[in-house]
Prior knowledge:
The first copy, chain A, is α/β, with parallel strands linked by helices. Chain A has helices spanning 12-22, 42-45, 62-65, 80-89, 106-113, 131-140, 149-163, 193-196, 210-222, 256-263, 313-328, and strands at 2-7, 27-33, 70-73, 93-96, 127-128, 143-145, 172-178, 201-202, 228-234, 241-248, 270-272, 290-295, 302-309. Chain A folds into two domains: 2-125, Rossmann fold, CATH 3.40.50; 150-310, Dihydrodipicolinate Reductase, domain 2 (2-Layer Sandwich), CATH 3.30.360. Chain B binds chain D through residues 12, 180-181, 185-189, 191-198, 236-238, and chain D through 12, 180-181, 185-189, 191-198, 236-238.
Amino acid sequence: xxxxxxxGGTGYTGVELLRLLAGHPEVSLDVITSRSEEGRExxxxxxxxxxxxDLRFSQPEIGRLCECETVFFATPNGTAMTMVPQxxxxxxxxxxxxxxxxxxxxxxxxxxxxxxHACPDYLDQAVYGLPETNRxxxxxxxxxxxxxxxxxxxxLGFLPLVEAQVVxxxxxxxDAKSGVSGAGRKAATGTLLCEASxxxxxxAVPGHRHLPEIRQGLELAATRPVGLTFVPHLTPMIRGIHxxxxxxxxxPDRDLQALYEARYSNEYFVDILPAGSHPxxxxxxxxxxxxxxxxxxxxxxxxxxxxVIDNLVKGAAGQAVQNMNIMQGFNESLGLADIALIP
Amino acid sequence: xxxxxxxGGTGYTGVELLRLLAGHPEVSLDVITSRSEEGRExxxxxxxxxxxxDLRFSQPEIGRLCECETVFFATPNGTAMTMVPQxxxxxxxxxxxxxxxxxxxxxxxxxxxxxxHACPDYLDQAVYGLPETNRxxxxxxxxxxxxxxxxxxxxLGFLPLVEAQVVxxxxxxxDAKSGVSGAGRKAATGTLLCEASxxxxxxAVPGHRHLPEIRQGLELAATRPVGLTFVPHLTPMIRGIHxxxxxxxxxPDRDLQALYEARYSNEYFVDILPAGSHPxxxxxxxxxxxxxxxxxxxxxxxxxxxxVIDNLVKGAAGQAVQNMNIMQGFNESLGLADIALIP
Amino acid sequence: xxxxxxxGGTGYTGVELLRLLAGHPEVSLDVITSRSEEGRExxxxxxxxxxxxDLRFSQPEIGRLCECETVFFATPNGTAMTMVPQxxxxxxxxxxxxxxxxxxxxxxxxxxxxxxHACPDYLDQAVYGLPETNRxxxxxxxxxxxxxxxxxxxxLGFLPLVEAQVVxxxxxxxDAKSGVSGAGRKAATGTLLCEASxxxxxxAVPGHRHLPEIRQGLELAATRPVGLTFVPHLTPMIRGIHxxxxxxxxxPDRDLQALYEARYSNEYFVDILPAGSHPxxxxxxxxxxxxxxxxxxxxxxxxxxxxVIDNLVKGAAGQAVQNMNIMQGFNESLGLADIALIP
Amino acid sequence: xxxxxxxGGTGYTGVELLRLLAGHPEVSLDVITSRSEEGRExxxxxxxxxxxxDLRFSQPEIGRLCECETVFFATPNGTAMTMVPQxxxxxxxxxxxxxxxxxxxxxxxxxxxxxxHACPDYLDQAVYGLPETNRxxxxxxxxxxxxxxxxxxxxLGFLPLVEAQVVxxxxxxxDAKSGVSGAGRKAATGTLLCEASxxxxxxAVPGHRHLPEIRQGLELAATRPVGLTFVPHLTPMIRGIHxxxxxxxxxPDRDLQALYEARYSNEYFVDILPAGSHPxxxxxxxxxxxxxxxxxxxxxxxxxxxxVIDNLVKGAAGQAVQNMNIMQGFNESLGLADIALIP
Lengths: 343, 343, 343, 343
């Protein structure tokens, strides 16, 4: 039984962490912080937690957080980096669900996030928490940069092609669609029901912060530069990401289905669907699975990969718990057994 | 570990039973039948169950079902009653999620369901499976009539008022709103996304089959006849029932909040919210809880009760598992620990 | 051709007014104000208006507004009352879509709206703009208090019963359900897609501002005090109100269908459906109609009235245009010919 | 004033035609057929049409249809081709909203639609009804093949690039997302609200019937073969198509914004948004416009085109009315002035 804390518990990744940790048999949730909701019962803000979580939100205090074995940051970008050095010094394990430690190059980070990095010296020791590529490093890590939601769906979808070097690496295309919860719980006109339902649109086509994160991961896998066009879209639903990936095959005779099944044969949370399938986002709603199908519509030509996750689970809180399980030596799927809700 | 079977596993109550039983630590799911999907893998029809359920749909055969300790019927009305006598004779416990055994009077049943009852002799021994009123009888029962979704939400909401006899029993009003999953998974124009989303309407105002079921339950609690107007509505979402209940108070000074808290103080699955609350259906999405708030907007006057459930869980499959737990002597909440998904 | 202005054009009633007035053959839209969006092209904020509206938002200036024949206020409550006296003096006709002039009693207004009324002397001359009860007064009015959305649906539904005095006037119940656009376009957590979709809840059960407005209207029609319980709910869709109304019949033999058809036989925008019908909110989406069905589920007993409108049209902007048409002597349905979008 | 008929009026393109034609000042709607709903009032099936359409559905009879000047087919694929020869002989103008006359090659048609073509001799005289490429031919045509919904959005988006030959024509990618109304009004499990809402998935990745239609159009424009990967997706909303198009630029210095604005400068129904825009499907909900934005996210590289339509209007019934207007010499936008509903 380990003691865990959550910094910034009022957003959607925060409440999802609460849901998962409240049911985790090896975790005692000790602290959950929020500046704006200090003193309020967590279950008053999120009534689904009535009877499951007895905590109140408290001010973030380094002292109390240092009593935890693991601290999760479910804060906006730029917050974790101001507190991480102290927690690391105190021996606490940290899992940051925001972007502060995802990019290895502090200049690239500053360019995309608009502020200087507060502790660039920690970028090297931060481990990118995608277990399917980094499990051993995660096991030994003290600081985890939990991947973004789009980067999780897109990288898991592209990895087999990129690692096997069977596609034209200069012209990868990722057309990704996200449910609205990806935009968070803050009040904003654009994500009101009346603006975002019965509507579909692309956004950030000139450049989205997840582009350098995805490219960094794919380039590591490819061991060479990668040309990527990434277009995110907002789709009128709460949870789910569907990434549709396109790559020109350099080896058109390769059996893609076998390639994908082999790559993920030991990955509990990556499910390669039978040939000809079309994964539905709802098949992973509330679950930590990524489901993938790979197609080759015309002879030779283009590989089309369909990759779905729940952005709040495998794309955020679930993957964070998976990383914690690995770091702590627990069974990797502990506390992550939920079956997706259909319908 | 008991062996369980499901007859009629392709509808929404069927897949919800599968989800709950697949995670139940004391149940081995042995049989799931479907005439139309015979031979097909369950996880092919419901991909959320991939990795959790290995069964294939099979033809319903009494012989195989008799090897189960408990058989659930998730069939259309009128099916269970043709098979129940054989199963009962074989000592199998039966939980019928349809309406076949809910009404005590076979003539009333025939009037509302349009066909003669196939085994009226079994109506007496059937126990109405609302644990909050019938726990002892359920424990001893072999045949459970699992309550309807509206009847669960409406009865749990009205019971404290009716049992305490503090309202005008001749003019009860239940204005109920249901998500579309209440209409089932069969192909039908009226429940297409393009017909039922961005839309709201009442239906069956002249008379709905759940009216006699609710009235029967309330009259038992009141030990007198009850006048009830019940108007169901379809609301554009998948899961959830919200019952708004109105009753004229005959004792306007009664502390309704205390009355409700006392009535349900020992009921794990009924949660009385603090005074002034408005329960949200999403606070019980995927969970077996019923959350209730009670209001008295004007001095004296009218009690307004707000009662929410997930129609597929407390209103169907979850309550069925709760009943099975009681019958088997398991902890009543075993396998029902899921926290509602928010958002 | 009259010149019209809109004060406060960035909310949902504002953009709906723009949509309707842009297509109105007798209106030239001259001014649209917004403090926050000053200088921005209207069609940039609302791209559906590209090619239809060339205006930019401007600061509200009394001088420019006084050049209009009719000025609409689509502002928050409490704004119109600070500008109306000047406009009235200048001979401008004013239609206020907010609540500033709806209640005749300034003390009741202050009690429900929380601030003193800025120009209580104008409450008497303000005409409540429900054409189906007040057409002659509207024709002669200079200042119109455009009714609220719930009050429109509820009053139109109750009026025939109340005017004919065939129900128990002490126990009226209005259970109303609104789409989320009723909450407006301002950024707020509670109306985010991720909070309000896949969810249903009541709100303001202890008391909603539309309660005194509805009661005032019904008491005028009844020429006596009225006891009303009003419970509003939020339903997960953009547009539409469905009011389900309950009243105990004092004359159970009255032919309610005939009563309703007679009452509204000359009302173009009130459509009494055939007996046994259940109106759908989508049947009026984007249209200025109110559709009503009346039921009497049990012999004697209770009348159940179902009344649907589009809250942004007959419940706001459409009714405002209808009032303008009456005031100007235009055909009452001019510019209001749109057929509801189905699907 | 011309007399018009609709064959097959019970589907979504049928009711949308009804909505548009009921408000068209130069059309008298004389006949609407349906085998299944014969004798039923149209406004009973579609209550939005109450007060606007007085017709009843009738059996399709060639005699009555021949009295019309224009007959629209809103039937399933394969129906129009059995009746068109007789209507053409009688001098009736025919606009087929289904696919019967869209492909020029009868063998390709048979391959994709699974049955032999009933009147291949008419394929040559059929004019593909995309006014933005074929206006002159449409003006002179007697038989119009109204384009499919995806083909309209994708072709209008690609045409400027393809006609100007500034992209690699062998690797075009069209990632398209459609609202559920594209699947029609027939009862089907897959498009139930409970299956299709809160969900997103691709379908028909191995091959969709609109692929050959799009390719035919693009090859005509390019005057050479074209390599196209087309992936359709279902998005949880009623109306709208968003096509996201990718093409490698062969001339990276070309000013794409200027190219698009020039190409469509005279097209009333094609709206090129300012540089940097992201069109929303709701901005065309209920309207006949196509809105397009063109991006070039990285230097050189890839053009990303975003093209939105309402699949039932510009993608079906609205384009059919536009074609009728052209054929009859009416103003092209007559009866098509509706402004999209926002919100």
